[in-house]
């Protein structure tokens, strides 16, 4: 076993070496050439080996490889921050850059707390957060506490934060009653959130946090129209902050640069990650709106926080080059166009499959949920590890496609999905090929099971 073998699967099974990447493909040591249909974990938005991004990183290393942004700023950081603010139409006003989505969520939580302490009329009693079941916001203690995914939380439950509670997510496939319209469903979820504020004491809540499209925990579940507007209204009613976690669903993945732009429901703060740097560097961020920034400006004037690698110059240069490439080549438009192709191809090939319960998503962010029985949506026994079997089958030489399997889709423990998140510059041929390969993998896995 290799000394790097720490994670659950690698403890027992030596990891395969990935040697190189080109466009949508990754080449492995044993000769397999894998179509990377998930961009890792919805990260590689430009595909692999992009010359412009590599050159921008090399230029930055030659210029200045590191400085602490507590003392200095740098050109790529400033340029990236301006580009990001501009991309929100000025609806966000400041940018904090970190190395991972989890760090971005930790920063959001701490800044929310500091905001209430620094208000002209401070509200030190605001210490609680409301998030949603079946969500994922990161793996560090604070961000894992925010997440509502039972399987990811269970081992660590006794050391998670006690001041985070969870309400139902918006998941029409699993939770909407047949008799309910979108508006009825939203009204029910509003009532639930309102009741949670009341239960906790509305004056004790810092923020409500949600993913615009739930990624890793449920497999690309968008909310019904009007949901976020209604959730934000509840936050406003009680003076709490409204925070969106766009680490997975943002930066173009869903067909607009920021997922909230689809219904123009502007958050007070927003985390971003994966598609920001496209995997060329570990980079994520927190975009902060005026309400929070103005309060800090009028008080201590700085966020009491900091990481050694915050605003790292090479990460910023990489992210800037990725974002410029997205703009220059109109890739968000390609995401919308190719998203339509992906949806059509998946539905055509898989809708009638007896174990495909739901196909859902937005842009180039699609999930397929598998069920034992389509009529009652009964999931497979979690012991069968179905999602991981599908993922493993995809990697076999016959298929050579990388799929992102997830378990706990239905209730945090049972339920299986795979997630697809191909690069924004995917061609129609590549998208069709992904759908063909997914169909082949699904048929093979269930052929072996049934
Ligand atoms: N938030 C969301 C919505 C995510 O999907 C993830 C990662 O999958 C994170 C936060 C955590 O990001 P990271 O793995 O970079 O810490």
UniProtKB/TrEMBL annotation:
| Reported cofactor(s) | pyridoxal 5'-phosphate
Q: InterPro entries annotated for this entry?
A: Aminotrans_3 (IPR005814), PyrdxlP-dep_Trfase (IPR015424), PyrdxlP-dep_Trfase_major (IPR015421), PyrdxlP-dep_Trfase_small (IPR015422)
The UniProt GO MF terms for this protein read: pyridoxal phosphate binding; transaminase activity
Matching entries from SUPFAM superfamilies are given as: PLP-dependent transferases
Query: Which Gene Ontology cellular component terms are annotated?
Result: cytosol
Q: Is Transferase tagged as a keyword?
A: yes
UniProt keyword annotations, A-Z: Aminotransferase, Pyridoxal phosphate, Transferase
Record's family? Belongs to the class-III pyridoxal-phosphate-dependent aminotransferase family.
Q: What is this protein called?
A: Aminotransferase, class III
Specify the species. Talaromyces stipitatus (strain ATCC 10500 / CBS 375.48 / QM 6759 / NRRL 1006) (Penicillium stipitatum)
Upper classification of the source organism reads: Eukaryota, Fungi, Dikarya, Ascomycota, Pezizomycotina
């Amino acid at each position: 076993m290799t000394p790097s073998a720490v994670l659950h699967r690698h403890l027992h099974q030596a990891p395969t070496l990935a040697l190189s990447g080109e466009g949508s493909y990754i080449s492995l040591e044993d000769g397999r050439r894998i179509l990377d249909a998930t961009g890792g974990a919805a990260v590689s938005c430009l595909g692999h080996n992009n010359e412009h991004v590599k050159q921008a990183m090399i230029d930055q290393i030659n210029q200045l490889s590191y400085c602490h942004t507590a003392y200095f700023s740098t050109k790529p950081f400033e340029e990236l921050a301006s580009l990001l603010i501009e991309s929100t139409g000025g609806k966000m006003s400041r940018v904090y850059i970190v190395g991972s989505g989890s760090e971005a969520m930790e920063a959001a939580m701490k800044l929310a707390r500091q905001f209430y302490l620094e208000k002209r009329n401070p509200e030190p009693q605001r210490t609680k957060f409301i998030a949603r079941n079946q969500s994922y916001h990161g793996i560090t203690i604070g961000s894992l506490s925010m997440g509502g995914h039972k399987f990811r939380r269970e081992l660590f439950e006794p050391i998670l934060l006690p001041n985070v509670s969870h309400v139902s997510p918006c998941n029409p496939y699993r939770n909407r009653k047949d008799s309910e319209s979108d508006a009825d469903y939203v009204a029910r979820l509003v009532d639930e959130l309102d009741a949670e504020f009341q239960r906790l004491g509305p004056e004790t809540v810092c923020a409500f946090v949600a993913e615009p499209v739930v990624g890793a925990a449920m497999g690309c579940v968008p909310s019904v129209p009007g949901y976020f507007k209604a959730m934000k209204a509840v936050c406003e009613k009680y003076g709490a902050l409204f925070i969106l976690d766009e680490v997975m669903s943002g930066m173009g993945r869903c067909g607009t640069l920021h997922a909230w732009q689809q219904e123009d429901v502007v958050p007070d703060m927003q985390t971003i990650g994966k598609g920001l740097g496209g995997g060329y560097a570990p980079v994520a961020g927190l975009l902060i709106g005026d309400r929070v920034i103005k309060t800090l400006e009028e008080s201590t004037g700085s966020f009491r926080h900091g990481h050694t690698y915050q605003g790292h110059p090479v990460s910023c240069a990489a992210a800037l080059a990725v974002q410029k490439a997205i703009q220059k080549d109109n890739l968000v438009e390609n995401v919308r166009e190719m998203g339509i192709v992906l949806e059509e191809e998946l539905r055509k090939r898989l809708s009638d499959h007896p174990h495909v319960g739901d196909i859902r998503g937005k842009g180039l962010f699609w999930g397929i949920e598998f069920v034992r029985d389509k009529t009652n949506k009964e999931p497979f026994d979690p012991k069968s590890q179905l999602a991981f079997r599908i993922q493993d089958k995809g990697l076999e030489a016959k298929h050579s496609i990388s799929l992102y399997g997830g378990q706990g889709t239905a209730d945090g423990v049972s339920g299986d999905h795979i997630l697809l998140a191909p690069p924004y510059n995917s061609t129609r041929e590549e998208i069709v090929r992904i759908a063909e390969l997914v169909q082949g993998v699904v048929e093979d896995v269930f052929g072996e099971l049934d």
